[in-house]
């Protein structure tokens, strides 16, 4: 078999996008397709049509198909239960949920993962567990993986298994504050100000991660001309992400390396924030979702 | 002169409402009018028309008129500068800004008050200084006044002067989260749950006022059926107000009495929260704005 023959079709199907991969037996991505067909934009009952249109001929010949992300949620195509952490590739492989399409193809849906905090509150992920498994690879020891975004995830991985994680609503909180409070009124588009971003981080750190009062400084500082209106959005972003770091760093092992597992534009901001907290941090390789899907499929023994 | 003759016309003119008072020489409110003509709903150049329609014949005969609130802001009728704290009735009286209407009536606009936090960030109020002056009355010693709302104010008053204050964006943050994030999707109208509200307060306290992770529990708890969807809004409210208390109590004198200076429905929630933090708290009398306007006018020597 040629090493770049397809051994697996992987789907990373989230809220706002669908990423489809043809993956070789050694985990290499042979081909990728990305569309805006996230679950929010697909009408009820329409998932199989999208699947056929995007994956199409790839799936002929009975290749195994594994799908992760919000596609497995109540509002997705086929709901899967949550595994309880700790969870690694073998646990996730054991929890795959088989589903047969009307067209007769079998898809294996990845389960979500849940955990409970020290105070018993549940926390959940769908899709991120696959990215983390991909980013973690064969690494031993304890690593902290950070997935920035609307709902940022901070996961602790020990010897390849997710032992616990916490979700921070930073991205969504930032957008709601910017677009739906008075803070947006003194914001003007600007070229992006690293200084203002770091000033926001510093403020969050000086307030030990408590933001309800500090947020008002995103109004008073431009009101008094102490930051420019073109810098105010960056300042607010720094404030929120800085607060996330104060809170998140307080709950992860002190010496563990930190890895930002993201393709997003946010990764750069998270790296800068980590540096401002004196925590050396690196980014993961690209295509962590594809690698994760491949590692789960391999653990399940279903690679062709 | 009859004790209930009018000696002063007071206007508490804010963002969403206008409250007008006929006030006697001893501070008693003789008559009050309230309309929805907040500065947000009055077209440019329209303030004098609203003034004439609402205050009308009251203002004939040259009675002194004092006005406070957002009406003195850049988007109001006549902008006043900020006094820098400490500020009491005499300071505010000294900062009154005279304005003559086209109709020839003189209005004295109350200045806003500003202060700077330990880290130099500016903070501001317009209108609340008048309510605080009214609520403080002749009391000696140090008292903490709390004005719940869209932007809650916590002010420290010593011997009748506002020595410093902080603004917490709790009300606006709560509304933005409820209406413009995923948290609203698992909320259903309910009869109001004190237990859920206090559960939110407890969560905020256990997280030492850091909310970015705790907020996600307002999604996961109803998702797992651990609070009812009809209770989720109360839980979120408790979480945000509880976080405000953690942060605010950390910056006020430990033994000072706390007074909630508010007519709003929120006062009850703030009292409950204070009790859950073990801080005995009382509410101020009604009409604190009218009393404050009267105290400022008296300090200015302009009562008829």
TrEMBL record, chains A, B:
CDD domains: ASKHA_NBD_KDGal-kinase. It comes from the Bacteria. GO terms for biological process: D-galactonate catabolic process. Its EC number is 2.7.1.58. Gene3D superfamilies: 2-keto-3-deoxy-galactonokinase, C-terminal domain (3.30.420.310), 2-keto-3-deoxy-galactonokinase, substrate binding domain (3.30.420.300). One of its GO terms (molecular function) is 2-dehydro-3-deoxygalactonokinase activity. It holds the Pfam family DGOK. It is an enzyme of class 2 (transferase). The keyword Membrane does not apply. Keywords: Transferase. InterPro entries: DGOK (IPR007729), DGOK_C (IPR042257), DGOK_N (IPR042258). The keyword Transferase applies. This is 2-dehydro-3-deoxygalactonokinase. The lineage of its organism: Bacteria, Pseudomonadati, Pseudomonadota, Alphaproteobacteria, Hyphomicrobiales.
């Amino acid at each position: 078999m040629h090493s770049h023959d397809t051994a697996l079709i992987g789907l990373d199907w989230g809220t706002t996008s669908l990423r489809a991969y043809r993956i070789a037996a050694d985990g290499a991505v042979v081909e990728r397709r990305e569309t805006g067909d996230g679950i929010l934009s697909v009408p009820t009952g329409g998932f199989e049509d999208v699947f056929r249109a995007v994956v199409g001929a790839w799936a002929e010949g009975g290749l195994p198909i594994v799908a992760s992300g919000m596609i497995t949620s109540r509002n997705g195509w086929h709901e899967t239960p949550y595994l309880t952490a700790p969870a690694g590739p073998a646990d996730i492989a054991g929890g795959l949920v088989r589903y047969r399409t009307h067209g007769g193809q079998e898809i294996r849906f990845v389960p979500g993962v849940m955990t409970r905090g020290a105070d018993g509150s549940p926390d959940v992920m769908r899709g991120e567990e696959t990215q983390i498994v991909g980013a973690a690879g064969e690494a031993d020891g304890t690593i902290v993986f950070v997935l920035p975004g609307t709902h940022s995830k901070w996961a602790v991985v020990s010897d390849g298994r997710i032992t616990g994680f916490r979700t921070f609503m930073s991205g969504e909180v930032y957008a709601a504050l910017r677009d739906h409070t008075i803070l947006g009124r003194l914001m003007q588009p600007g070229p992006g100000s690293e200084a203002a971003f770091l000033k926001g981080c510093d403020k969050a750190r000086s307030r030990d991660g408590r933001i309800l009062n500090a947020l008002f400084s995103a109004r008073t500082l431009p009101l008094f001309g102490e930051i420019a209106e073109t810098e105010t959005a960056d300042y607010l972003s720094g404030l929120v992400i800085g607060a996330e770091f104060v809170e998140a760093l307080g709950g992860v092992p002190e010496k563990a390396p930190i890895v930002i597992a993201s393709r997003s534009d946010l990764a750069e901001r998270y790296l800068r924030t980590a540096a401002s907290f004196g925590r050396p941090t690196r980014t993961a390789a690209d295509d962590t979702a594809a690698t994760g899907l491949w590692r789960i499929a391999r653990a399940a023994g279903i690679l062709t």
